[in-house]
Amino acid sequence: MPNIGIDLGTTNSLVAVVMDGKARCLLDGEGASMLPSAVRYEGERVVVGREARDEAPAHAGSTFTSVKRFMGRAPSDCRADAALFGYRMDDTESRFVRFLVDGRAPVTPVEVSAEILRSLKQRAVECLFGEPGGAVITVPAYFDDAQRQATKDAARVAGIEVLRLLNEPTAAAIAYGLDKRDTGTFAVYDLGGGTFDISILRLDDGVFQVLSTAGDTHLGGDDFDRALADLAWAQILDEDERANSEEHRKGLLTILERTPSRHRALLLAARAAKHELTEKDGALVRLEAGLLTGVSRKQFEAAIRPVVERTGAACKRALSDAGLSPGEIDAVVLVGGSTRVPLVREYVAELFGREPCGELDPDEVVALGAAMQADLLSGQSSLGDDILLLDVIPLSLGLEVMGGVTEKFIPRCSTIPVNASHTFTTHVDGQTAVDLHVVQGDRELVKDNRSLGRFELRGLPPMPAGVPRVKVDFLVDADGLLRVSAREEHTGIEAQIEVKPSYGLSEADIERMLEDAIDHAETDVDERLLIEARVEAEGILAALDKALAADRALLGDGEAGAIEGVASALREAIAGADRERISTLSKDLDAVSAPFAQRRIERDLTQALSGRDAEVVGAELGLR
Amino acid sequence: MTCHACHEPVGGPVCVGCGALQAPPVDPDPFAILGLSRRYHLAPTEVEARYLKVARTIHPDKFVSRPSRDKQAALQWTAAVNEARRTLKDPVARARYLATGSARQDERGPSLDGAFLQQMFEWREAEEEAPGSMAAHAVALQVELEAEIDQIFSRWEGGGGALDAVPDRLARLKYVTGLLRPAGE
Ligand SMILES: Nc1ncnc2c1ncn2[C@@H]1O[C@H](COP(=O)(O)OP(=O)(O)OP(=O)(O)O)[C@@H](O)[C@H]1O
Ligand SMILES: [Mg+2]
Q: What pLDDT, on a 0 to 100 scale, did the predictor assign at position B22?
């Protein structure tokens, strides 16, 4: 089954797939590709999408929208934002955000996101007539480690295998670049519902190289809605007061209260008016019968200008990190629904000194790019094998050192995967543990950066102070996620590392959610595991088929027979329901084909290193 | 190192005996990793071309449906290749690597001599009198140091001369470059 690409958006989410060499978004029963990222809890039932969004005012206490803004954040950072959406936070939990829900247990943003993902996956199952393979899920390029991890957790709760987290602007560039096979330097300006990203990329001969990225994970169309809602509300009160001040005063509305449900209705009305203002010079914000007010485009633009201008600083920083001036950008690509706002377009044109292009649908382009990457990762893509994606880490990683100062060990915009190592020692005789505090951000002081986690190295051999040398390796993987390992250099003892994420879910939290999720989805664990085993097996078979087709010559005597024997047994097993057998045969196939696979890698590496200097190198590396 | 799969000794990315992809060396030589001979005069385009060639074969994206051991190795190799590229594209890091065996300056670095520091002190004083004079001095010295480093390496590449003076010149270069950086960066 094909892999899928998912754009998990603040406002709208989409799922796409590559079929017959072309990426397309999968549609719901009504022919829509966008699933509004809104979830309503109704006892055991969960309503996701348009209905949940449109009926939010009537169910203010059990409907959640824009939860992406809360992913991977500290409760203390979220109070103000939660109040703006009218969400009540569960104050008994300090490690992660949890919302109170009318009529049921509190939910985390991860669980809400998982409902959206589950609904998209269900759509894929219906459109593809079967379980999809793995998924590429997009995240804002400017998401930090905790926000990325939360996204991955949500996928896990939803029973989706994540092949890769892909940055949204990079996904858009893939959709543009692969479509046209362009060469040049591009700026991707992505302003969606809740996040803003700017990425500068170079495209050359199938290589997508991100040069820099910057952004703001709390800036988007939601802020336009809020500005317009506040403006409209002030006018309604104003106009209402004038009406009241005369003889009608008694018996009419006394005080207009901004109740949670009216607040939700106001936001929806503001959004509808905002969309109208994209086309027209004026629009009405209709709150409820008798309560409405007119807003001109000029007024709207004055209200949102400060928000729009906040994107400028990030654009300048991205250009400077890439070492480029605006004139060196060949094209500016607009992504995200909020780039439809005329003021945004004007501002971007002014900033880069050129008209932006937006040939592809700004709503769908991220999902399409994600589907293309998912297809490329399948190892048997029709889009070509020569494609290489080089992305970067958006924010520097650092350690807390004396005096609350951050010492950077990986600078922002480094190409990932990237690693760094640091050696630590002890300060007290016989000390057997060392604490490390890892932070993310570019500020000097630890307190101004995001705390990622505390790592405790334990089990050091007791030695005099200063003697142990603990080497800690930090590795940022291709998803932009940090992995840490450590060893004591004298003894070679692998130090145990206990990771205490500052904010986020523990393994136990996720397992509990998985159990809940499975109860509620009424599929049992065995079935879930069987599906996972099949997906994995199919992936291995597909990769093998491709390798055999290309490099049969590299097979040793009798090797082909052995491999094909296991492969056909595995194919039979996949058709059945014996999970153990599928897993065992998958492992067997891996083992029996490993030497062949490694021969191919070796051959590729040698070829890559070939040329004038290769012999020297080969000898140095012990290749030959 | 011994191969994680067949436990025979191994020195490169791929075990000669059984073909398993190994974890990359702890202290990798960026020239060897990218298949380039050791030299200072190296065009960024040459580094980039080699980098892309190697990255295409070992990038984690190519190992998504492989066992986790291979995924892990691909990750580490690519990180090592990325690091090698960064070192070789930056003339200062490249020079430092060739001269000291490490691309990064260690904590202490070579100490700058008194005469040099005295000179810097004089520039700072002169700056008070004639604003802008320090930058002019610094730019001139920067050019001079870069030319000197270039010459040392030309001699070395031609088979003569040592690199002993390089760490000191790099330390001076770092100092003057610092003078030219706008405050607050
Ligand atoms: N015609 C329009 N005029 C103005 N704004 C629009 C228009 N169409 C959509 N939008 C706004 O675009 C936003 C949604 O954009 P999009 O679907 O790209 O966001 P998202 O992908 O859900 O969010 P993010 O990428 O930030 O996670 C909403 O704020 C919506 O109101
Ligand atoms: Mg989006």
A: 64
* pLDDT per residue as tens digits for the range A442-452: 888 888 888 88
Instruction: Considering only the beta carbons, identify the residue of B19, B54, B75 that sits closest to A602.
Output: B19
All CATH 3.90.640.10 domain ranges in chain A, comma separated: 221-302
> Does the domain at residues A221-302 carry the CATH identifier 3.40.1280.10?
no
Contact indicator for A526, A503 with CB cutoff of 8 Å: no
Strand partners, A164: A136
Mean pLDDT value across chain A: 85
Question: What's the pLDDT score for residue A9?
Answer: 96
> What residues are in contact with ligand 1 under a 6 Å CB criterion?
A 9-12, 37, 68, 192-195, 220-222, 271, 274-275, 278, 336-338, 340-341, 363
* pLDDT for residue A615 is more than 50: no
Helix (H, G, I), strand (E, B) or coil at B94: helix
* CATH fold for domain A4-181+364-383: Nucleotidyltransferase; domain 5 (3.30.420)
Q: What is the pLDDT of residues A79-134, one digit of tens each?
A: 888 988 889 999 888 788 999 998 888 999 999 999 999 999 999 999 988 888 89
- For residue A178, the one-letter residue type is L
Helices (H), A133-257: 145-157, 168-180, 221-245
> Looking at chain A, which residue has its C-alpha nearest residue B64?
A377
Express each pLDDT in A398-444 by its tens digit.
888 777 778 888 998 999 999 988 887 777 888 888 888 888 888 88
Indicate the SS3 state at residue A191.
strand
**Cα(B53)–Cα(B91) distance, integer angstroms:** 21
Instruction: Tell whether pTM > 0.95.
Output: no
Alpha-carbon gap, residue A338 to A574, rounded angstroms: 45
CATH 1.20.1270.10: does it fit domain A524-608? Answer: yes
Closest CA to A297 of A279, A312, A311, A271: A279
The CATH homologous superfamily for domain A397-507 is Substrate Binding Domain Of DNAk; Chain A, domain 1 (2.60.34.10)
CATH 1.20.1270.10 maps onto chain A at 524-608
Taking the CA of residue A134 and the nearest CA in chain B, the distance in Å comes to 10
End-to-end CA separation in angstroms for chain B: 42
C-alpha dihedral (B79, B81, B84, B85), degrees to nearest 10: -110
Q: Which atom of ligand 1 is nearest to the CA of A221?
A: 29
Instruction: Provide ipTM, 2 decimals.
Output: 0.82
> Which of A134, A386, A601 faces B21 most closely, judged by CB atoms?
A601
Q: Are strands A207-216 and A388-390 parallel, antiparallel or unpaired?
A: parallel
Report yes or no: A159 and A118 within 8 Å, Cβ to Cβ. Answer: yes
Give the pLDDT score at A166. 96
Residues of A in contact with B76 (CB under 8 A): 417, 419, 475
Residues in CB range of A439: below 8 A, 6 or more apart:
A397, A398, A399, A400, A406, A446, A449, A450, A451, A452
Distances (CA, A) of A390 to A56, A170, A302, A372, A374: 41, 9, 39, 15, 15
How long, in residues, is chain A?
A: 624
Which ligand approaches the C-alpha of residue A193 most closely? 1
Question: Alpha-carbon distance B91 to B145, whole Å?
Answer: 13
Is A419's CB within 8 Å of B83's CB?
yes
CB A69 within 8 A of CB A79: no
Q: Cβ(A6)–Cβ(A370) under 8 Å? A: yes
